[in-house]
From TrEMBL:
Its cofactor is Mg(2+). Gene3D superfamilies: HAD superfamily/HAD-like. The active site is at D40 (nucleophile), D42 (proton donor). Belongs to the HAD-like hydrolase superfamily. Mg(2+) binds at D40, D42, D259. This is Glycerol-3-phosphate phosphatase.
């Protein structure tokens, strides 16, 4: 890697190096410093169901350079197969085994524990699909309908399945007080595991518009039960430990591209990856500046190595363009 570029990054690291301020030669030298790229999805490649401008072309051009590519998302509403299809429909060159989701990580965690009981899901079908794929039974997913005159009577009379051994919490558009009440009651038993897909607070759906993420629900359950969950998704390195174990990636030669400092960039730091923040999602340069001035001892771990406003800003530096 170019020594001048290394020094530039080192000098600007506390201030986060803005990649577009570097000359073309320096950026091309940087491109030689990694062999694999792990991309977040929402806020990096797409927003809800719409591709972010130039994202697929950039993704595919980097693949054409020989970079291994993976999508690693905390979104647990779809299975990894569903995320793969969504990406492919946008023209992104990706295969099923190159997609990692927090729901998939949660299911793998239970499978590795040789879990034999049932799971109650405060979440959506993505979690259920991944659990079924590894042979783990779960209770029906959906709305909890309150019965009785009020919540007090409901809480006293609601049935609890004695075979439930784990609670899985993710994004849940059917979230309700009756469901929260049932989850809290299950977790009064210390032998019932409390698992979270992720702790993302919100997902961007349009400029200045967000929807609550799993982190809001996880925090609510934690506040009621006074129990901390095992978080299976980013920033937990467990999310990609299979890639590391199988030798598919080397930390020192891997780039993490994300839009959220407290999950994606922290994940990159935890795994020993280079990190690139894109400004097309949750976190902004102002958030980075706040981290730089923070007195929290570990705030620096969420400061990215590099920043670009959007992924497609890299396209002009790439020798090969597909799509």
């Amino acid at each position: 890697m170019n020594l001048a570029f290394c020094r530039t990054v080192q000098q600007q690291k506390k201030g986060c190096c803005k990649l577009l301020t570097l000359n073309k030669y320096s950026v091309q030298q940087w491109l030689k410093s990694f062999d694999a790229i792990i991309y977040d999805a929402d806020g990096v490649l797409w927003r809800t169901d719409k591709e972010l401008e130039g994202a697929s072309a950039t993704f595919n051009a980097l693949r054409a350079m020989g970079k291994r590519a993976y999508i690693c998302t905390n979104n647990s509403t779809k299975s990894h197969l569903g995320i793969c299809k969504k990406a492919q429909d946008m023209g992104i060159l990706i295969e099923e085994h190159e997609v990692l989701t927090s729901a998939q990580a949660l299911a793998r965690f239970l499978a590795e524990k040789k879990f034999k009981k049932k799971v109650y899901i405060m979440g959506e079908e993505g979690i259920g699909a991944e659990l079924r794929a590894v042979g783990i039974e779960h209770l029906p997913i959906g709305k909890e309908v309150m019965f009785g005159p009020d919540m007090y009577e409901y809480a006293k009379a609601m049935p609890l399945d004695k075979d439930v051994g784990a609670i899985a919490v993710g994004e849940d558009r059917d979230f309700s007080v009756p469901k929260l009440t049932k989850v809290a009651c299950y977790l009064t038993d210390p032998s019932v595991m409390f698992l979270a897909t992720n702790r993302d607070i919100a997902f961007p759906v349009a400029k200045g518009r967000y929807v609550p993420g799993a982190g809001v629900l996880v925090a609510t359950v934690k506040a009621i039960t006074k129990r901390a969950p095992m978080t299976c998704g980013k920033p937990n390195p467990y999310m990609c430990n299979q890639l590391l174990r199988e030798g598919n990636i080397k930390p020192e030669r891997t780039l993490m591209v994300g839009d959220t400092v407290y999950t994606d960039i922290q994940f990159g730091y935890n795994c020993g990856f280079q990190t690139l923040l894109v400004g097309s999602g949750v976190s902004t340069l102002d958030d980075v500046k706040k981290l730089q001035s923070s007195k929290q001892p570990r705030a620096y771990q969420q400061v990215p190595d590099l920043y670009v406003p959007k992924l497609s800003d890299l396209l002009k530096f790439l020798p090969s363009r597909n799509g």
